[in-house]
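Protocol step 4 of 6: structure prediction from sequence.
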Amino acid sequence: MTQNNTLADIATEIEALDTQLLKIKDLIDLIGQSAILKADEVAKAFADAKDRFADALANQGEVEREERLKNFTDIRIVASPGHNLMTTAFTIYYTRKAWDNDAKESLPKVFECKGFAGLDDAAYEYLVTVKPHLIPAEIMALAPGNAQEAFGLYFVGKQRGYVKGAAVAV
């Protein structure tokens, strides 16, 4: 059997092997020992294909994430301090490749965003997963060690107008 690596190819292979295995099992009584050996061979290939499908499915999310983030090269956060975290203004500058019509290729371009809520999804994911050390300490204090949760509490606090919890004293 050839080894296919895309989810669609593996799923098709699983269906074909399952059908083949059912047919062979029906023929075991008619053919005898050679059918049993063939059934074992197909059953092994079937199990292998299912394992490869599970691995490919698990890796697909990581591959898609890497594809989304590969064009980012830098992110920088500038804070304009207010009276507290809720009144502090943040400007985020991030560099990612964007199409340049004159050059006819994707070139690094700096984008500017006022506030974290305005970040596009990929830039936010880049900040939280690749550069979490750049997240302002005031925000990380809301949920130390967990950037996603810290931002969740920050966004809720921005809607509410105040934050709750131990980090308020920070």
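Step 5 (inspection) to follow. The helical segments are 7-31, 33-69, 121-130, 137-140, 147-160.
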